[in-house]
Amino acid sequence: MKTSAGRKNARLAGRLVAVVAGMVGLAYASVPLYELFCRTTGFGGTPVVAQQGERTMLDRAVKVRFDSNVDPNLPWRFEPLEREVKVRLGEERLVHYRVTNVSQRPIVGTSVYNVTPEPAGPWFNKLQCFCFTEQLLQPGQSVDMPVVFFVDPEMDKDRRYDNVRTITLSYTFFEAKTERAKILLGGNPANGTGKGG
After folding, report:
1. 3-state helix, strand, coil in the chain (%, to 5)
2. What are phi and psi of 76, to 5 degrees?
3. In a structure prediction context, what are the per-residue pLDDT tens digits for the chain, which is 197 residues long?
4. Fold of the 47-184 domain
5. DSSP-assigned states of every residue in 65-117
6. Euclidean distance between CA atoms 85 and 66, whole angstroms
């Protein structure tokens, strides 16, 4: 028969297990929730994911520079086809990045992105971007990938952003190891197999 101290210890152990399980669940949910928060608000220099629609185009223009980086463990070459463009606030613009798989195996890559200066993040809106999905490249394959963006004309109404004349959009590619990446490689996500990798 359990003593009252034993019952208290069992209840405490049960609560601790529940707390740990909750913390693990929150840890798994935190990354997608944080990414959603950043895309929605522009927090941390993350560009806002916008919808198509009509907007005012102003005379005020900014330079948008394009930066590209690749994780050292990913055998891809990655570069913007234009280093910078000048755009008017509200003007929709299409640019391309070129990526090449320089390895002898198919690889799925995924990219992260940000905008500097960081306060410009909420004003930089992407309508279409290769960064929204994982990319499969075969050995030696090159692909030109589009980005469609605009800088929100509402930025002009806030005097704090008068000195923003140049915005840099930066991407970094990493090898994707997700279930979707395994499927793209022709593998079975249940047992983690994939072709060529």
Report:
1. 30, 35, 30
2. -125, 150
3. 556 777 777 777 777 766 666 665 555 454 444 444 454 444 444 554 545 556 789 999 999 999 999 999 999 999 999 999 999 999 999 999 999 999 999 999 999 999 999 989 999 999 989 888 999 999 999 999 999 999 999 999 999 999 999 999 999 999 999 999 999 998 755 444 444 44
4. Ctag/Cox11 (Pfam 04442) (2.60.370)
5. EEEEEE-TTS-EEEEESSSEEEEETT--EEEEEEEEE-SSS-EEEEEEEEEES
6. 9
Task: Give the number of other Cβ atoms within 10 Å of residue 113's Cβ.
Answer: 19
Residue closest to 147 by CA, chosen among 126, 166, 122, 168: 126
Residues in the chain, overall count:
197
Segments making up each domain of the chain, as ranges: 4-41, 47-184
Handedness of CA 82, 39, 72, 167 (dihedral sign): positive
Structure tokens of 54?
Answer: 């009509």
Tokens in use for 85?
A: 């463009």
pLDDT at 14: 74
Q: Rounded to the nearest 5°, which phi and psi values hold at 157?
A: -80, -15
Q: Across the strands, what pairs with 175?
A: 109
